[in-house]
Amino acid sequence: MSVSTPTRADLVERAAKLVPLLRSRGRWIDENRRLPEDVIAAIEESDLLRMQAPTQYGGYESSIRAFVDVLAEIARGNTSAAFCMSIYASITWMTALWPDEALDELFATPHVRVTGTTAASGTARRVDGGYLLNGRWGFNSGVLHAQWKISAAMPAEPDAEPVPIFALVPIADLEIVDDWYTNGLEGSGSVTTVAEDVFVPDHRVITGQDFYQGRILSARNASKPGFATPVLVSMAAMQTGQIVGAARAALSGFLERLPGRPIIYTDYASQRDAPVTHLQVGEAALLIEDVESRAQRFADLVDAKAAAGEQWSQHERVVSRVQIGWIAKQAKQAVEILAQASGGSSIQREVPITRLQRDIHAISLHGMITPGVNIELYGRTLAGLEPNTVYL
Question: Whose CA is closest to 215, among 205, 226, 227?
């Protein structure tokens, strides 16, 4: 299939057109703990789901930088929608590792949405022609609107090597447990999925070695440099975009509400005139500028190394993890400053700042993003010690 590839500016413009709808549906999204059908339809119509799909299936194979900028726009409208989009994009990109037979099945669905988790909280028992999958996986963001899911599982045989397998599974084969009641990213619908003796054929399974070493089993994708980046590096870079957009939304929302708002129980008839406000806005804005600049540099580095066919050293992989951790830390700090400056009226549901505050907090708790863990990992390697994780 041949399609014309939009420019980064074109894609960002498409994302910007979704912002008014996303903002208007913010309260519904939180209250219903999922994305509404009109938002899903608008996302499909935008064709932004093609960004990380292979070109042979009508995808754009867009740059990481393009997706960071697009995701930042989506997050200006709604962080839960942006979080789902980041999962769909990064997991869709990840599927390029699978054999072409599996990809032909996957991309037969128009506007296919793939979700997944890398935590091996299930088991896989070898049977003739494939595996029987059993287990329970939490935090499946976007699964309520997805058609496929990647599930990681440990081999059930006692003599098997303790390395997980990664299975592509149709959502229809899984049980959905509606247990997503949270104080952040409510609309991501990150519910639990359960598999009970689900058969997964061999062509839809790759090994942990394939996954973590980036072995591309697709003959049609093997020579494409864009898919050669280590999986977790690519995922980290893509997902900085939602953090950038949420922080931007917090600042713009604060400034929109500023004119005419007094500081109650003071002589300031307008909060805009108060020096304390100037300090708060200035500090938050500088933090957000740093967040955006770091995210864009990180994305540009990933794209440049892919274009040059350069390998990623262990140290560079560690550095990639600390990028998203530090970005999350600074963004959270900026949003907290703005939330504290927003006054008592900001706790009303129509005011976005408290939603953004909850969402940024939730994002920063993600196991691959948590600032403290990633900063400790970075400092450990600077001190000359080996990383204490294989998730690089």
Answer: 227
Sort 181 into a burial class: Cβ within 10 Å, 0-12 / 13-18 / 19+.
exposed
CA atoms within 13 A on the CB side of 92: 31
185 near 359, Cβ under 8 Å? yes
Please state, in angstroms and rounded to a whole number, the distance separating the CA atoms of residues 245 and 73: 6
CA 244 – CA 195 distance, rounded (Å): 35
Q: What is the mean pLDDT of each run of 10 residues along the chain (392 residues)?
A: 82 98 96 97 97 95 96 98 96 95 96 94 96 97 97 92 94 97 96 98 95 92 93 94 98 93 90 95 98 98 96 95 97 97 88 94 94 96 94 86
Residue listed under structure tokens 């519910």 = 191
Contact 135, 121 (CB under 8 A): yes
Q: Which domains does the chain have, with CATH numbers?
A: 8-111 (1.10.540.10), 114-207 (2.40.110.10), 231-382 (1.20.140.10)
Phi/psi at 86 (nearest 5 deg)? -65, -35
